[in-house]
């Protein structure tokens, strides 16, 4: 029996997943086949990036030559072709990273994103929706630290996240371990690691796409504990932009470095770049975000009184041995952050990653003038932290996990935070309210 080009490409995509994530792939997909197009992983890794009520961006990792076409349809009607926003060709890896933007959409309805080859045959097909950012209630998930070398977890943890049905997802750093399995620590190796990670995670193969925003930390940058002096910083920024998208819309736009701002569900989300402007360790009066990025943050937060999520790859509050935090490593900048937050009208909460455990820490009113919290979500599949994790925390979890947040800004700022393990098992949950 002959194999059509479409079937050959689908089989090639599934084989690539199996080769990267190991023999557990077949069993994992078998248990969760409904998550994948046609019951098997999508052929080409695709991420839905910045999305608002009427538009959506998509980043496709395609083989070269990237002579394919993308179309968006609803109810059998094909809409105008998505517009090319960015493209990065990586010839040595036979890969092209293509960002496109679809416009003229509407919230609350399913759309189909179809990838066609140069002969018009269907290569891949996914489902997506826009984000009804005008709603006051929503659910988002936060994850960090995703090493695709954890082959089974690179499938099962993302399947667990998909079953939580978040409106959108935020990745707080180490979404690629560009410095691992890269002995030369060079740009060619960094590009290969970005491609390997994109090909190796189940999140990018599922039928239902979910808007996903990201900011980096040191491993995405390509150097453990890297800072503004990292020799490959410009190239790393180019890679990150290509793989996570740059096209702005009514709800999302870039900040400084690879930071960004997203607005929706009656709230603001600030993803801060903790590497591009970071002073080397030991610098007297050293900064993590830099003066310009700090000013940008407060120009943004000061615009109105909507709740503000301040999100960072690393933790804020520390004072624990062998832990990195702004409080420990950049104390003057941390004091500046708290002083300025205490003077704005909008309530704020802190969200962080990096430390390979998840936790909720209560931040007393002596810090900002009102009680708030630091929520840490780490790691979804990377090294398990063997050290003490619970000191000063309301709850903590070291096993592979991610966190979800059900938020309601109708009147007060009500938050239900949950920590989810493999298989959808709930580790902990807390309902809190933050008000000035």
Low-confidence runs of at least 5 consecutive residues: 1-23
Q: Beta-strand level of the residues, as a percent range?
A: 25-35%
Q: Which bin fits the share of residues in helices?
A: 10-25%
Tell me the domain tally. 2
The Cα radius of gyration reads 21 Å
- Looking at the structure, the CATH topology of the largest domain is Purple Acid Phosphatase, chain A, domain 2
CA(first)-CA(last) distance: 69 Å
- Summing up helix and strand content along with how strands pair, one would put the structural category as alpha+beta
CATH class of the largest domain: Alpha Beta
Principal-axes geometry comes out as globular
CATH architecture of the largest domain: 4-Layer Sandwich
Task: Describe the protein in words.
Strands 12-13-14-15-16-18-17-19 form an eight-stranded mixed beta sheet. It has a six-stranded mixed beta sheet with strand order 11-10-9-20-21-22. The protein starts with a helix and ends with a strand. Helix 4 (187-200) packs parallel to helix 6. It is built from ten helices and 22 strands. Helix content is 22%, strand content 30%. It folds into two domains: 5-128, Immunoglobulins (Immunoglobulin-like, Sandwich); 137-434, Purple Acid Phosphatase, chain A, domain 2. The chain has 436 residues and is an alpha+beta fold.
């Amino acid at each position: 029996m002959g194999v059509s080009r479409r079937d050959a490409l689908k089989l090639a995509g599934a084989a690539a997943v199996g080769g990267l994530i190991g023999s557990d792939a077949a069993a994992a997909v078998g248990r969760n086949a409904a998550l994948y197009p046609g019951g098997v992983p999508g052929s080409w890794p695709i991420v839905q990036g910045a999305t608002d009520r009427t538009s959506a961006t998509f980043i496709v990792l395609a083989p070269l030559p990237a002579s394919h076409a993308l179309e968006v349809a609803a109810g059998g009607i094909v809409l105008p072709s998505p517009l090319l926003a960015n493209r990065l060709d990586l010839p040595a890896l036979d890969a092209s990273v293509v960002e496109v933007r679809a416009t003229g959409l509407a919230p609350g309805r399913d759309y189909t994103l179809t990838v066609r080859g140069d002969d018009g045959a269907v290569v891949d097909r996914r489902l997506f929706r826009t984000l009804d950012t005008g709603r006051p209630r929503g659910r988002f998930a936060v994850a960090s630290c995703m090493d695709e070398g954890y082959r089974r977890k690179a499938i099962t943890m993302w399947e667990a996240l998909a079953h939580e049905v978040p409106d959108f997802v935020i990745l707080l750093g180490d979404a690629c371990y560009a410095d691992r399995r890269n002995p030369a620590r060079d740009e060619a190796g960094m590009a290969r690691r970005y491609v390997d990670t994109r090909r190796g995670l189940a999140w990018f193969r599922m039928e239902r796409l979910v808007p996903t925003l990201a900011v980096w930390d040191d491993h995405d940058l390509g150097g453990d504990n890297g800072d503004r002096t990292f020799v490959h910083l410009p190239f790393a920024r180019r890679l990150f932009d290509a793989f996570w998208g740059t096209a702005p819309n009514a709800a999302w736009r870039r900040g400084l470095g690879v930071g960004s701002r997203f607005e929706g569900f009656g709230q603001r989300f600030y993803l801060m770049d903790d590497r591009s402007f970071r002073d080397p360790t030991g610098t007297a009066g050293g900064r993590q975000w830099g003066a310009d990025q700090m000013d940008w943050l407060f120009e943004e937060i000061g615009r109105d009184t909507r709740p503000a999520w301040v999100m960072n790859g690393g933790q804020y509050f520390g004072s624990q041995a062998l832990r990195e935090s702004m409080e420990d490593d950049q104390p003057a900048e941390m004091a500046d952050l708290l002083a300025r937050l205490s003077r704005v009208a909008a309530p704020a909460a802190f969200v962080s990653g990096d430390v390979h455990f998840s936790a909720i820490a209560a931040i007393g009113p002596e810090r900002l003038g009102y009680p708030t919290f630091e929520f840490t979500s780490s790691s979804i599949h990377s090294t398990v932290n063997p050290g003490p994790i619970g000191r000063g925390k309301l709850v903590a979890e070291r096993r592979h996990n991610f966190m979800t947040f059900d938020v309601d800004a109708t009147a007060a700022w009500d938050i239900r935070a949950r920590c989810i393990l493999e298989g959808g098992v709930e580790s902990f949950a807390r309902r809190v309210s933050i008000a000035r």
